[in-house]
Amino acid sequence: MTESLTAAYNQTKYKLGNHGKRDIRVLKEAFQDIEGQLESDRYGTGKIIEDFQAKMAALLGKEHAVFFPSGTMAQQIALRIWCDEQGFRKVAYHPLSHLEIHEEDGLKELHRIKTVLLADKSRVIGLEDVVNMEEGIACVLLELPQREIGGQLPSFETLWQISEYCRDKAIKLHLDGARLLEILPFYQRSAAEVCALFDSVYISLYKGIGGIAGAILAGDQAFIAKSKVWKRRHGGDLISLYPYIVSADYYYNLRSPKMGQYFEAAKELAALFNSCHGVSTLPLMPVSNMFHVHFHLAKEQAASVLAEVQQATGVGITSYLTEIDEHTCSCEISLGDLYAELPREVVIKAFRVLDEKMKQ
Amino acid sequence: MTESLTAAYNQTKYKLGNHGKRDIRVLKEAFQDIEGQLESDRYGTGKIIEDFQAKMAALLGKEHAVFFPSGTMAQQIALRIWCDEQGFRKVAYHPLSHLEIHEEDGLKELHRIKTVLLADKSRVIGLEDVVNMEEGIACVLLELPQREIGGQLPSFETLWQISEYCRDKAIKLHLDGARLLEILPFYQRSAAEVCALFDSVYISLYKGIGGIAGAILAGDQAFIAKSKVWKRRHGGDLISLYPYIVSADYYYNLRSPKMGQYFEAAKELAALFNSCHGVSTLPLMPVSNMFHVHFHLAKEQAASVLAEVQQATGVGITSYLTEIDEHTCSCEISLGDLYAELPREVVIKAFRVLDEKMKQ
Questions:
Q1: Which of chain B's residues have a Cβ under 8 Å away from the Cβ of A71?
Q2: Is the dihedral of CA B311, B313, B315, B318 positive or negative?
Q3: ipTM exceeds 0.95
Q4: Boundaries of each Aromatic amino acid beta-eliminating lyase/threonine aldolase domain copy (chains A, B) (predicted)?
Q5: Is omega for the bond preceding B145 within 30 degrees of 0, making it cis?
Q6: Is B25–A34 a contact, with Cβ atoms under 8 angstroms apart?
Q7: Per-residue confidence (pLDDT) for residue B36, from 0 to 100
Q8: Which has the closest alpha carbon to B273: B329, B183, B350?
Q9: Which of A341, A317, A345 has the alpha carbon at shortest distance from A331?
Q10: What average pLDDT score do residues A40-67 get?
Q11: What phi, psi does A53 have (nearest 5°)?
Q12: Cβ(A243)–Cβ(B206) under 8 Å?
């Protein structure tokens, strides 16, 4: 059934989420107007990488920024630098942090850093979680938005309070901002205003921005200098990173002005899901371009319903479902360029059909 | 003076070494005939990465191969896996190994692996170095050719003896084959025949092959499965590695048949250098596409001579010099596609001018 759900999704003419297929066209489009004579970066030096790093540092309001092949590498390194500086190897983050569940314990295996889990899996970290945490924490990592619970956010006031508390206690604060640009329309703040609350910041270049891969780590001069040494140790100081840099720059320019549009689309789409029988979104009201959809059916049943809806309407909702319990399953929706291409009447029809099928 | 040497080199019409500039054309050429619909790899899966890995495993005669963003990452991981399997964290390699001098001690800092240096800086590792090494070595790493001493090689018989000895003593043997394809014409062996002497093998995809970046690590099924876990821990399991994979495959197809041509060119060119007053190559007779050139002059003087020769003849010899002592400096030459574009009479004239200027 899951296979036919994937097949049904792949055959649809329209898709609710994302920017489009991750295929070679993503690279070809980014490079089509780039001069062939433009020289490669070379082990972290050269105009192509330095210009982009300076642009990202300015965006994030930090002294310096460095391009990394991945966020996994960038964030482990950030936490390691803060641990070394503080003199103890313990950090605190959410139980569903990317570092805790998607990185094969690199932080622990490579850096011997212990982790303390704040809050619980169902909610974001609040001020009280930070105030009540054990002693000897070198750095707190906050992920904004908290992806694995549908992309939830604390209020900006809570963020500010956590930042003040950490500064007061000399605890470093690191931002996992994989989707930082995506939350700015909700906070109604600039990237630099959010980043000012943090000692170091990571952003991803292939989520809302939709580049090929890559990440930026930003902070003060001394922090970034150390991060470059660790980047080499990790094997991330490649002779040429330009395929990622050129594409990141291209899609940043194209899509950073559209984050408000994606946010509005997410709110509209979540309302449509919530109007259907047996369907709800997490959060109910999105605070970024993403949310999770919960179908209150067993996974096999929901897969069957969604395959039918997608076949009948030509609208791609999801290619997969994750089981939550015997009676509930979910998928993630991230709004991108494709939603704007969807005719309004097609969307309305798709949700009418979904509502009907969910009732059966 | 060094700046004017670089400037003089950059202005020459011809170059002795390399394949050409590392600019965006390298990417554009590799992608020009690739269909836009071809799907990206995705976190190490998908046809684009799996096909190339299978091709490289077959080339190297190993069960499996995995694509890595860098050799730094691939080799640290190989040594870590063997250390874990053997139960002790100590490896042996040459004092000028890439891991010892170019990786900011990643092996020690990230993996807490101790290193024992074999042979001395002036020569390659021989059987007696391995036989006489201390106890408790999990793995010996051999770099073929030994780049930092001009690309020297042990005889194939010595390699075979070291391999037999290590197998007998249950010591793992890893090949740093950054330039493996480049030595096959000298050994008159297939890649698989050389790799059969080793438990694990790394090759680079941007040296003689001339791709954008990237590396292959090959070995048995269990070894490669573990390497993928470590690849994720290091932050090397990118969502998309295809910019490197597509270019590696393209330039592998283009240049792997030309390794014999590069080797012949290296021998011819080394003879020309050795015919000049105050110039010698290391090794005297190259065993791959590379060698070092020693100029028996102070670095400033040699830079001045070489800038003049390059300006006068339009032939690019080198853009830099490394000081060896007060009376000697050196550069590295790696033969690639460009040498074949050089008219014979231009080469001869360049070396006549070099010889004359070195006599003054």
A1: 235
A2: negative
A3: yes
A4: 38-282
A5: yes
A6: no
A7: 96
A8: B350
A9: A317
A10: 98
A11: -65, -40
A12: no
